[in-house]
């Protein structure tokens, strides 16, 4: 009887790490907002590279410091951010002032301040005003 109990105990100890290993393999790594993101959709349409002919808007967010910065398609910008769960508030505070003909940077900056929630799905950052999607960014993969 003791031999059977000891055998069962040894088998359970040996199989326990295998269960834990399979759990680690199936878990996906969560993508955080704290990354660099490149704009791919604006106002429901794919980015037009003829409109954003100088640069594609790209932002880097740091919720721990409460800041973000990047390029609005023409100028470098910096701002403050607040994140609480899926709620987000973005406020551009300063930027360079180059003139870029046709780039809707003022409109883009105004829309950024309207964002009030976000989600990350399939390595895409989706910024919304209530249920309306205003911006979709793709993750800039670090090399």
Work out the strand percent.
35-45%
Which term fits the overall shape?
Answer: globular
Summed over residues and divided by their number, the pLDDT gives a mean of 86
Number of domains: 1
Summed up, the helix count is 2
- How can the largest sheet be summarized? 9 strands, antiparallel
Structure, explained:
The chain is of the alpha+beta class. The chain has one domain: Beta Barrel (Lipocalin). Helices cover 23% and strands 39% of the residues. It has 2 helices and 9 strands; from the N terminus they run H-E-E-E-E-E-E-H-E-E-E. It has helices at residues 2-26, 105-112; strands spanning 36-42, 45-46, 58-62, 67-71, 76-84, 87-95, 117-121, 124-129, 132-139. Strands 1, 2, 3, 4, 5, 6, 7, 8 and 9 form a 9-stranded antiparallel beta sheet that branches. Strand 5 (76-84) and strand 6 (87-95) form a beta hairpin. Mean pLDDT is 86; it is low at 21-26.
Write the layout of secondary structure elements.
Layout: H1 2-26, E1 36-42, E2 45-46, E3 58-62, E4 67-71, E5 76-84, E6 87-95, H2 105-112, E7 117-121, E8 124-129, E9 132-139
Antiparallel strand pairs: 1-2, 1-3, 1-9, 3-4, 4-5, 5-6, 7-8, 8-9
Question: Outline of this structure?
Answer:
The chain is of the alpha+beta class and 143 residues long.
Give descriptors for this structure.
143 residues; alpha+beta; Lipocalin; nine-stranded antiparallel sheet
């Amino acid at each position: 009887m003791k031999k059977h109990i000891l055998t069962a105990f040894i088998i359970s100890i040996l199989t326990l790490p295998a269960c834990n290993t399979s759990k680690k393999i199936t878990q996906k790594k969560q993508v955080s907002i704290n990354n660099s993101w490149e704009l791919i959709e604006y106002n429901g349409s794919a980015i037009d590279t003829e409109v954003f002919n100088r640069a594609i808007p790209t932002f880097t967010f740091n919720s721990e410091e409460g800041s973000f910065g990047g390029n609005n398609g023409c100028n470098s910008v910096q701002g403050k951010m607040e994140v609480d769960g899926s709620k987000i508030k973005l406020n551009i505070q300063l930027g360079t002032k180059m003139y870029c003909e046709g780039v809707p940077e003022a409109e883009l900056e105004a829309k950024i301040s309207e964002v009030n929630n976000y989600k990350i799905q399939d390595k895409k950052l989706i910024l919304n005003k209530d249920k309306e999607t205003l911006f979709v960014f793709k993750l800039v993969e670090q090399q």
